[in-house]
Amino acid sequence: MEGPFKYIREGNGKVSRVIRMGTRKSQLARIQTDSVASRLKELYPDVHLEIVAMSTIGDKILDTALSKIGEKSLFTKELENALERNEVDIVVHSLKDLPTSLPTGFTIGAILQRENPHDAVVLHPKNAGLTLDNLPEKSVIGTSSLRRAAQLKKRFPQLEFENIRGNLNTRLKKLDEKDDYAAIILAAAGLKRMGWENRISQILGPEDCMYAVGQGALAVEVRAQDRDILEMVSVLHHPDTVLRCISERAFLKQLEGGCSVPVAVHTEVKGSMLYLTGAVYSLDGADCLKDTMQTCVEIDNKVSESAQECVPVHVAVTANNISSSALDAAEKLGMDLANVLLNKGAKDILTTARKLNDAR
Ligand code: DPM
Q: Ligand 1 pocket, 145 CB below 6 A?
């Protein structure tokens, strides 16, 4: 039992490899990590999974809007340090929290089937039965997402928008126990994973609010050189989700946007076609550039050889078990759509939004 791997002798005398999974300490992060752990356990009954919990900058700074902290890998840095030091082998994230480029040495080895990617309205109990359309004028909606605020300000000008921070538990508590917010906006996927689906009073469709790049999908981050672990987690890839998310991430990357810019997307796979709608907004939503493009992502059987030296990576995702021509097409779709919007002035809209946000 040589090498960098840790092994354990089980009660029955059998020796199993130990796979350590790093997670943030928040309840959502734990639930997400546990769900990937149980998938892995089903697929590989012989591996011994260990869960290592740690806090990140994003968990520690609770009073500042995410978009203002300015730390790029807010929720990921401590976990990546642990990966690098071989203290953990796998880290589970919400894909939307992972930057479009990862530091050297890391890659996304799996993207799991996407949950509902849309945003949801959670009402203060006193407003039960109402919707964003008929809440009283000047009702305060809590969100610190520039993307949500920009789209909803334009669509519902009679409402007011204010920041709300903290993990999901904190936010729901702030909503229910105080009278500061009439409603808050959260990702439906997070609410569902927490078992709070019953708090969703309205799902926002694309005409109201398009979602964030990668929203609703879980991602497994691993060491790029760790071929064993990469191969092990690659079976978790959900091909349609991977193609959609690669196009979304390529769109964001080409725009040079991060997690703190008002950029939104909507994707669909229909047959062999991948459709991507992408948009950029000014902070008040008044300026908006939006377009839709599509490409063919027919899954051929030419999957890239995993034994080859140079493993292709698409916006930090390694997916050797998915047709490389489909991955290339998805990535190109995102870049092409971004270039269309950049030609119409997207850069100016985003630069102004960033400056105004920093000055607040
Ligand atoms: C990112 C944003 C937010 C999270 C920005 C955005 C929401 C921040 C806020 C990049 N990450 O969406 O425009 O409301 O102040 C986050 C959540 C989930 C992953 C929670 C949520 C769970 C759902 C998922 C925070 N990251 O958005 O309600 O897996 O997509």
A: yes
What's the 96 CA to ligand 1 centre distance in angstroms? Answer: 7
Inform me whether the pLDDT recorded for 3 exceeds 50.
no
* Torsion angles phi and psi, residue 169, rounded to 5: -60, -45
Q: Are 119 and 249 in contact (CB under 8 A)?
A: no
As a whole number of angstroms, the distance between CA 191 and CA 203 comes to: 12
In short, whether 66's Cβ falls inside 6 Å of ligand 1 is yes
pLDDT at residue 26 greater than cutoff 60? yes
Cβ neighbours for 195, distance < 8 A, ≥ 6 positions apart: none
Q: How far does residue 318's CA lie from ligand 1's centre (Å)?
A: 23
Once rounded to an integer, what is the mean pLDDT over residues 24-48?
A: 94
Residue type for 219, please?
A
Distance CA 10, CA 166 (A): 40
Number of neighbours of residue 325 by Cβ within 10 angstroms: 16
| CA 183 to ligand 1 centroid distance, Å | 16
| Mean pLDDT across 266-288 | 97
Residue spans of alpha helices (H) in the chain:
27-43, 57-60, 66-69, 77-84, 146-155, 168-177, 188-193, 227-234, 239-254, 324-343, 346-359
Measured distance CA(75)–CA(83) in Å, rounded? 14
Ligand 1 pocket: which of 36, 74, 143, 215 to mutate (most atoms within 8 A of CB): 215
Q: Which residues contact 341 (CB under 8 A, 6 or more apart)?
A: 255, 278, 279, 280, 289, 290, 291
- Enzyme catalytic residues: 97
DSSP run (H or E) holding 193: helix 188-193
Ligand 1: does its nearest atom lie under 6 Å from the Cβ of 216?
Answer: yes
Instruction: Give the nearest ligand 1 atom to 96 CA.
Output: 10
